[in-house]
Amino acid sequence: MKLDVSQASQPKALADKKEVVLKALETLVVKTGAGNDFLGWVDWPEQYDKNEYARIKDAAKRIREEVEALVVIGIGGSYLGARAVIEALSPSYDRKGPEILFAGNHLSAQEMAELLAYLRGKRFAINVISKSGTTTEPAIAFRHCKALLEETVGKEKAKSLIFATTDRARGALKTLADSEGYETFVVPDDIGGRFTVLTAVGLLPIACAGIDTDALFEGARRMRSIALQSDFEKNPALQYAASRLAQMDAGKSIEILVCYEPKMHYMQEWWKQLAGESEGKDGKGLFPASVGNTTDLHSLGQWIQEGPRIHFETVLWFDEAANDVKIPGDAENLDGLNYLAGKTMHYVNEQAMLATKKAHVDGGVPNHLLRFERLDAEQIGELLYFFEVVIGVSGYAAGVNPFNQPGVEYYKKNMFHLLGKPGFETLA
């Protein structure tokens, strides 16, 4: 991975933030800051549970051999990481193995009805992901899908097709899984939801999709050796964190993550949760937005180019296309495209990226450029760990606890009250 901040922050602005991000990194590494009981992800690429990892691989092999679809039930960090990696690294139109379906991330009756209708008559398995087992959205989805599975294959067979990823020792889902005999995997106590993509939370669905999880870990380990070093000039995570802080000091309130690969849509969604839930508290934090170019150049491009100067961009680019295609010539040339004949689409896409970046910079929009070699599992492992470190460092540097989410509890309490959940009859 290569980072270019030259069109975002001046050297002096970076130098001014050097000491604060170095101190924040130290706080992260030695685990002395707020939320330090949720820093298990920092060492996870090296210290993950090898025995459980082997069980995950075995379960994924069985699932891939036995069913047509896997229903992954979870919300927030319980599904975004897995979906991001699967969408980024799977073929768009001709996927092998079971179809990976996601449920429990909304309360739409229409969506649930359509899912159940689609599953009826299919051989499917369930991976329900919840630390507590009582979060409303996944709990409702699990009730529906579990009932359909038991109706389809019988209660005994269903037990072998339900996999629970939950707390190690307690909670409603753990109790149910132990009682019913579901195979269980662990949500680590010291890793919060939005940082769990390389734990069982993300790995079981990812492995079921046929993605090389070993390569994901290899990429994360490689980035860990880079992102945790205290040499500012050699650490792109520190430089990027410093530049983000400099942008905030300059009055920017929105960061737009830009990607030119449609496969990266859910990776952008994962990043939005990671950044927004980690930094958005105590009246602080950048608003994390995203665009998928060149598509969104024809919708939001105008606002980015000439709207209020309250934002900056971070562009993700992959230097190589795994499958590139050449633009054909046409004798009649009615569309006027023969000037591109023989050139590859990836080349044209890159020129669009460079042209857009220049236009936005000229228009007063600071730009970071993150370049990866190619869109593969190792590079995605690098990307995941890179962003996790950046957000941890910039959160600490900004003076917030990046590892809690107190605001999430407010709407939950209100919803429980309105729904009449016992114990929530009155609001505090």
Walk me through this protein's architecture.
This protein has 16 helices and ten strands. The protein folds into two domains: 2-31 and 216-407, 3-Layer(aba) Sandwich (Rossmann fold), CATH 3.40.50.10490; 41-211, Rossmann fold. The chain is globular. The protein is of the alpha/beta class and 428 residues long. It is 48% helix and 14% strand. The strands form two sheets. The chain has a five-stranded mixed beta sheet, sandwiched between helices.
Q: How widely separated are the two ends?
A: 48 Å
Question: Which percent bin holds the helix content?
Answer: 40-55%
Strand order across the biggest sheet?
A: 1-10-9-7-8
Secondary-structure element order, N to C: EHHHEHEHEHHEHEHHHEHEHEHEHH
Describe the main β-sheet briefly: 5 strands, mixed
| Count of discrete domains | 2
CATH architecture of the largest domain: 3-Layer(aba) Sandwich
Low-confidence stretches: none
The SS-based structural class is alpha/beta
Under CATH, the topology of the largest domain can be stated as Rossmann fold
Q: Any descriptors?
A:
Rossmann fold, 5-stranded mixed beta sheet, 428 residues, 10 strands, alpha/beta, globular
